[in-house]
Write a structure and sequence with these properties.
Number of helices: 21
Strand order of the largest sheet: 1-8-7-3-4-5-6-2
Radius of gyration: 25 Å
Distance between the termini: 51 Å
Structural class: alpha/beta
Strand content: 5-15%
Shape: globular
Bound molecules: phosphoenolpyruvate, magnesium ion
Length: about 550
């Protein structure tokens, strides 16, 4: 038996086999060939194989997710047959006498560059498609292809690190736990694990990745941050016992379902849940959350291969609102950028992406993306109790511009005869120190604030939330953070707005009393933390 230790990001015990997550990176070498005809035949064979694969994926997608979502694979098939694309590959092989792999990779780079530099967002998004089809061909040429995760049993996913875009694409039904060699507790992958209710450990180190093998038996202890490989009987027994006791505790918490979120002296608070997709709604209802305090809508973009259309977004928002049956649902407009990268947005590489072109900054400079999302949101508003909030706000001018766009979208929809709710609340996230400091100016302009403590912490303490080395400096209970929250609460209430917290700190029960004393009206946490926070609230006496 071997034991490795990292940091826990979500508790729970998982027992199963390891699957090492492999990125399919393809390294292409340029080699001279004498027989160019042979290379052309190899390209043709890889292309035929790719067409067959895409046809199969298209049909599967058509059955499972409908025609609109399946269309992308049809586009890929068309691109594979594109004359310019094929001619470029042929020319490179014949004129330079080089291998098929190099010709495909070079063509892919040239076409990607060309699409990325186009003005039109739709054309820019095609850059990712060229990359996709070229990589598919390269994989087909590659002798070790097909090394994919194809398991029927649930597995423990081990990776050096996982980007949010990789995590969302994993088949959640098959994941028992996540273990990564690197990563930080406030990264979106950690947040996803919490939302998915999956034991997760980060920062176990590089040796771990070198020493484990696919199929190794393992136990993940998400409470202590330990992972045991090929555990002995004694460890297995101990952890099985721990698993049983954890389940018992969870069952006890279930008794709090249906009870009020009220302190001993009668102060009420709303406890809502954070979600990243429609799939999380089951957990929201199961844990008796009073509403959804943060729907990270960008995951919809991360799960797509192209900009989700108004219809696709409308269908998702409507489903969430209908499932919540009149309970509050706060949907945050997309927060793409920083660690949440999507190829088809064609974003440039940045030195400091967290302080760069992300969230509302993209929305305000690429209004067609923002308007599509707002139209979908307002149309869906007729199906429930919607609130819309805007991320990364730093000024009243930004907010003014947003409110004007919302007005235009509403009038436009009314003009089209669309049914929209008249009571959609609008709010801003307080996740930059600037927003907290000018919260007295922002509050009169909105219905609510929601404090994003993850970003507020990184920007206030100058601690990159993606960098695990900085974690020791990142004191989430820092007086500066607490003062900014308290100040925002005071300003919100002065101007008749309400205030919630939706960052990970909302689930930190050692601060629940502090938040209640500040007058926080709502705490929004991962679904599985709702009852724990309720239990804490019910034990607090603010009159003491
Ligand atoms: C936050 O910053 O606290 C927040 C809730 O947003 P995200 O974690 O998605 O950046
Ligand atoms: Mg944030």
């Amino acid at each position: 038996m071997k034991k490795y230790t990292g940091r826990s990001v979500y508790g729970g015990i998982a027992i199963g086999r390891i699957t090492v997550f492999k990125r399919q990176e393809i390294f292409v070498k340029r080699t001279h060939v004498a027989d160019t005809e042979h290379e052309l035949q190899r390209v043709e064979a890889a292309k035929e194989q790719a067409l067959g694969q895409l046809r199969a994926v298209y049909e599967k997608a058509l059955r499972e997710v409908g025609e609109t979502n399946a269309q992308i694979f049809e586009i890929h098939m068309m691109m594979l047959e594109d004359e310019d694309y094929n001619e470029s590959i042929r020319n490179i092989i014949e004129s330079q006498s080089v291998n098929a792999e190099y010709a495909i990779a070079a063509t892919s780079d040239n076409f990607t560059e060309m699409f990325s530099s186009m003005e039109d967002a739709y054309m820019q998004a095609r850059a990712a498609d060229v990359c996709d089809i070229s990589n598919r061909m390269l994989r087909n040429l590659h002798t070790d292809s097909g090394e994919q995760m194809m398991h029927d049993e649930k597995v423990i996913i081990c990776a050096d690190d996982l980007a949010p875009s990789e995590t969302v694409l994993l088949d959640k039904e098959k994941v028992l736990a996540f273990v990564t060699a690197h990563g930080s507790s406030n990264s979106h992958t950690a947040i996803l694990a919490r939302n998915m209710n999956i034991p997760a450990i980060i920062g176990v180190g590089d040796t771990f990745m070198k020493e484990i093998n696919n199929g190794d038996e393992a136990i993940v202890d998400g409470f202590t941050g330990e992972i045991f490989i090929n555990p002995d009987t004694e460890t297995l027994q101990q952890l099985l016992e721990k698993q049983r006791s954890d389940e018992k505790k969870k069952k006890l918490l279930q008794e709090l379902k249906g009870k009020e979120n009220v302190t001993l002296d009668g102060t009420q608070i709303n406890i809502y849940a954070n979600i990243g997709s429609v799939e999380n709604i089951g957990a929201v209802l199961l844990n008796d959350a009073g509403g959804i305090g943060l729907f990270r809508s960008e995951f919809l973009y991360l799960e797509s291969k192209d900009f989700p259309t108004e219809e696709q977004q409308f269908a998702v928002y409507k489903k969430v609102l209908e499932s919540m049956a009149g309970k509050k649902v706060i949907i945050r407009t997309m927060d793409i950028g920083a660690d949440k990268q999507v190829d088809y947005f064609g974003l440039k590489k940045e030195e400091n992406p967290a302080m760069g072109y992300r969230a509302i900054r993209i929305c305000l400079t690429r209004p067609e993306i923002f308007r599509t999302q707002l139209r979908a949101l307002y149309r869906a508003s007729a199906y429930g109790n919607l609130g819309i909030m805007f991320p990364m706000i730093t000024s009243t001018a930004e907010l003014q511009q947003i409110l004007e766009i919302c007005d235009t979208v509403r009038s436009e929809l009314r003009g089209e005869g669309a049914e929209i709710s008249e009571t959609v609340e609008l709010g801003v996230m307080i996740e930059t120190p600037a927003a907290a400091i000018i919260s007295d100016l922002l509050a009169p302009m909105v219905d609510f604030f929601s404090v994003g403590t993850n970003d507020l912490t990184q920007y206030t303490l100058a601690c990159d939330r993606q960098n695990p080395e900085i974690e020791p400096f990142c004191d989430t209970h820092h007086e500066a953070i607490l003062r900014l929250i308290s100040m925002s609460a005071e300003n919100a209430h002065k101007h008749g707005a309400w205030i919630g917290i939706c960052g990970e700190l909302a689930a930190d029960t050692s601060l629940t009393e502090t938040f209640l004393r500040m007058g926080i009206d709502e705490l929004s946490v991962s679904p599985s933390f709702v009852l724990k926070v309720r239990e804490t609230v019910r034990g607090i006496d603010l009159s003491e």
